Amino acid sequence: MPSFQSTKNTMAKFFMNYFSFFFFLYRLVFKPSKNPKAFHRTASNIHANEGKLYHKYPSFAHRANLSKDQTLLLFNVEDALLKSPSLFSYFMLVAFEAGGLLRAFVLILSYPLLRLVGEDMGLKIMVFVCFFGVKTKSFRVGSAVLPKFFLEDVAVETLEVLKKGGKKVGFSNVPRVMIESFLRDYLDIDFVVGREVKVFRGYFLGVMEDKKQSNAALETIIGSQGLGICDVIGISGFKGSLQYHLSSHCKEIYLVRKADKRSWQRIRRDEYLKPLIFHDGRLAFMPTPLATLAMFMWLPFGITLSIIRAISGILLPYRLSIPILAYTGFRLSLSPNPSLQSSNTRKTRGRLYVCNHKTLLDPLYLSFSLQKDLTAVTYSLSRVSELLAPIKTVRLARDRDQDSKMMEKMLNKGDLVVCPEGTTCREPYLLRFSPLFAEMSDDIVPVAMDCHVSMFYGTTAGGLKCLDPLFFIMNPRPSYNVRVLDGVYGLSSFLGGGERSRFDVANHVQSEIGKALGFGCTRLTRRDKYLILAGNEGIVNKC
């Protein structure tokens, strides 16, 4: 494809020349003004002149547990909680998820300018690019997208400090709508202080309120919560350590140096104070400037590749489509069950495959793996996805009697696949399994499904579901792992009998799939997911 290669080379040269020019200008203008010795002299003077007030941050780790009632802990989110030295990636998430591809492209083009101007002005530019014209009512990036990336950037050292006790106040220079849900819902922070973004008739203006207002809010919290408290402790970086609201109220202030942050370790998933089960958004990577640039350079090729993959999967037979998908970078692994294959005798009814739900493509890749035609029953599927599906799909009405009759009819015609969670879950957890499938067949085969992506998630709660398969197959090397487990008996053959047996069967299948994948089993439902991520009870955005 010479025309595509020529376009790709032209784009690469444009970006390299663009960024090289601005980085050269940045070094030319700012290199003479940098004076590391002056910085260290300033820090030394702080410790020398205010030795009783200011301390180096590592010494805080040796303090005993803090009293919940007698300690007020103030910490700066950017300087004392997150390991990353830059906020660009978080604003890129806001630009891409709330504003779309064009807004994200404008932000990456402005990155050299952000390096040229001061930190304060750079923050204002990012806020304007990301928030201007965004509808406040539909803005859910702060609660649905950012918490995952913030959690992955939290330092172990700071988390241990927060566990010591005391009332906790997190303050930041970034907009409050970006950090509040993360701090309150996942770190149990009592008070959150951030800058407000101005709003006009339900739309963000992209301009933040003056710092004095957030400082005044912090003063109010300290004043109301500080009564009767013995210790008011502040944790901040050198840049913000001399702010009035810290130096005038805190008994002790611990200063975080850049060297301290470089030695910090990010927390692991099992160290989260609360498990992260649901999150939304399309980007599956931390969009640093270099990673974002790579994404934009990949997009033209990725879109072309996704079309090739889609045509191959929809139009070609299995013996042709599977090798083509593998050649384009798609990895599909199957762990078959020999006992099921040996007992695959001729039956009057079809076999019922029960899968956990990772993406809308689960039934399709099970069909590819088994190389047999299946009928998929779905709870929610866009019209476009339904029309383009290469296997037969049947929509359930969420009415038990009606749905059971439909499934019974389909089983009489052939093999059936169902995802009883009713919705997808990206993280290593299983949602509650609807027990309807337990009444339909005595030949139930659990199937453990897992998938991996590196650039785009193939699921969404607040976006257009018809684009889910496109985003998934647009990844450079997406992979699917299909593991067929031992069959289980349905309701009529399940030991114990009674009305509760269908729930026992559903819980047993969920447990077997969870053990096979190493996933945690929860009692959360589709309704819980959509209330958290989209603010509704599962309305599908059709397209």
UniProtKB/TrEMBL annotation:
Protein name per UniProt: Phospholipid/glycerol acyltransferase domain-containing protein
Keyword entries, A-Z: Acyltransferase, Lipid biosynthesis, Lipid metabolism, Membrane, Phospholipid biosynthesis, Phospholipid metabolism, Transferase, Transmembrane, Transmembrane helix
Record-level GO cellular component terms: membrane
GO terms of molecular function: glycerol-3-phosphate 2-O-acyltransferase activity; phosphatase activity
Domain Phospholipid/glycerol acyltransferase: 351-452
GO process terms (BP): cutin biosynthetic process; phospholipid biosynthetic process
Membrane-crossing residue ranges in chain numbering: 12-30, 87-114, 283-301
Compartments reported by the entry: Membrane
SMART domains for this protein: PlsC
Record bears the keyword Transmembrane: yes
Source species: Gossypium raimondii (Peruvian cotton)
Protein family (similarity comment): Belongs to the GPAT/DAPAT family.
Membrane-topology descriptor: Multi-pass membrane protein
Domain of life: Eukaryota
Keyword Zinc: no
Classification via PANTHER family: ANCIENT UBIQUITOUS PROTEIN, GLYCEROL-3-PHOSPHATE ACYLTRANSFERASE 2-RELATED
